[in-house]
Design a protein that fits this description.
two-stranded antiparallel sheet, globular, single chain, Spore Coat Polysaccharide Biosynthesis Protein SpsA, Chain A, 7 helices, alpha/beta
């Protein structure tokens, strides 16, 4: 089993906070954002490797971060997707497919956004997701605010945790339960990523893929509780910084 951390964006919504450094290396409460993410996977049994996919602008910086990182026994590999500007970016699903294209063997993959910041234990997600194989599982979070949910993919789950609805950034959300950028893709499900792109010509968002997939076959979700932030703006960065320092 492998973990893929998505760090291929250029952080344009965080200008002028960052411009020439990747969002993943933002410092929050004395620790980089990507260290917060990687450390959540450190004690999960069965992970062979953590792969970080980024772009040509930031690949050397993230490789330097790997070399300077202390502790941890799981190897970390940085993959450069070859893009140099926001206009060239491959999109989240495009980056997943870029990484998978060079893999020699099929594995289960957990895909996580480098801009997700959370404080809860991730191990229950693995246990739940493995029990739902070969179905895809999505990490969910209840914002507690229906109004705030309109910025995200809004999910509804049935009593068994199966997804019954997913709307991307709806004007009138049906619930406050949203999709985190956290996915368990069993090996058997990976060919469907290519099928999605071929059918929709959309390689931009992981949420778009799940929205397409749940209408074709079961997709499951596990809801977390605790602190969670999507570091997509200066405002969310400042709020997360204060919360995690407290």
């Amino acid at each position: 089993m492998k973990v893929l951390i998505l760090a291929g964006g250029y952080g344009t919504r965080l200008y002028p906070l960052i411009k020439d450094t990747p969002k993943a290396l933002l410092n929050i409460a004395g620790k980089t954002l990507i260290d917060h993410t990687v450390d959540k996977f450190a004690d999960v049994p069965g992970i062979d490797e953590i792969v970080v996919v980024t772009n040509a602008k930031f690949a050397d910086m993230l490789s330097g971060w790997v070399k300077g990182r202390s502790g941890g026994t799981c190897p970390i590999r940085v993959v450069n997707d070859g893009t140099h500007t926001p206009e060239e970016r491959l999109g989240a699903i495009g980056d997943v497919l870029f990484v998978l294209a060079s893999e020699k063997s099929m594995s289960d993959w957990v895909v996580a956004g480098s801009d997700n910041l959370f404080d809860f234990d991730i191990k229950p997600f693995f246990s739940f997701a493995k029990g739902k194989t070969p179905s895809v599982t999505v990490g969910c979070y209840d914002l507690g605010s229906i109004a705030g949910a309109s910025k995200y993919g809004v999910i509804q789950l049935d009593g068994n945790g199966q997804m019954s609805s997913l709307e991307e950034k709806p004007k009138l959300p049906k619930s406050s339960l949203i999709s985190m950028c956290l996915y368990y893709y069993p090996a058997a499900s990976l060919p469907q990523l290519r099928q999605f792109v071929e059918e929709t010509h959309n390689a931009d968002t992981t949420g778009g893929y799940v929205q397409w997939l749940y209408k074709k076959q079961p997709v499951f979700g596990l809801t977390f509780s605790g602190k969670w932030y999507d570091i997509g703006s200066v405002e969310s960065y400042n709020e997360a910084q204060k919360s995690f320092q407290d």
